[in-house]
Design a protein that fits this description.
Blueprint (H helix, E strand, L loop, with lengths): L1 H16 L35 H15 L8 E5 L4 E14 L2 E12 L2 E12 L5 E7 L5
Antiparallel strand pairs: 1-2, 2-3, 3-4, 4-5
Length: 143
């Protein structure tokens, strides 16, 4: 019996410790990719691909003020002196509720290097959330 005790103990120990292991983070084995500031990610504005990130940030602020249901209902302008982009938002009609969001139509103008583009659209926001442009298209003044 004592001849089997040694292998039995070894087998029992290997079964008990077989599930144990060590893990090492794999990310540490590979160098982090270098980031450069030469390529700036382009922020996609629903109004125009010409709007950069800071342009769109400023435009969104003006849009929120112009469309505020408790605001004055007057137009709100914005500009970015660094890019010479500027614009204006004018609310059209009264706010309305659609799929549990407050929505409002607007007219917008964007000016870039002397070229002005007119747009019409609708933006909505959930209660307490940010305005999101749901629809936008070129606007042509009725004749």
């Amino acid at each position: 019996m004592t001849r089997l005790a040694g292998p039995a103990v070894a087998a029992a120990l290997s079964l008990m410790t077989g599930a144990c292991g060590m893990s090492f983070p794999m990310a540490s084995l590979f160098p982090e990719p270098e980031s450069t500031s030469s390529i700036t990610p382009r922020v996609m504005s629903p109004l125009s691909p010409e709007l950069g990130g800071e342009d769109w940030r400023r435009a969104k602020g003006a849009l929120a003020i112009a469309l505020d249901p408790q605001g004055s209902g007057s137009s709100v302008s914005w500009d970015n002196p660094d890019t010479d982009m500027k614009g204006n938002f004018a609310p059209v009609g009264q706010p309305f509720v659609k799929t549990d969001e407050i929505c409002r139509a607007f007219l917008a103008t964007l000016t870039d290097k002397g070229t002005t583009m007119s747009l019409q659209g609708t933006a909505c926001r959930p209660s307490g959330g940010e305005w999101v442009v749901k629809e936008v298209k070129p606007w042509r003044k009725p004749v």
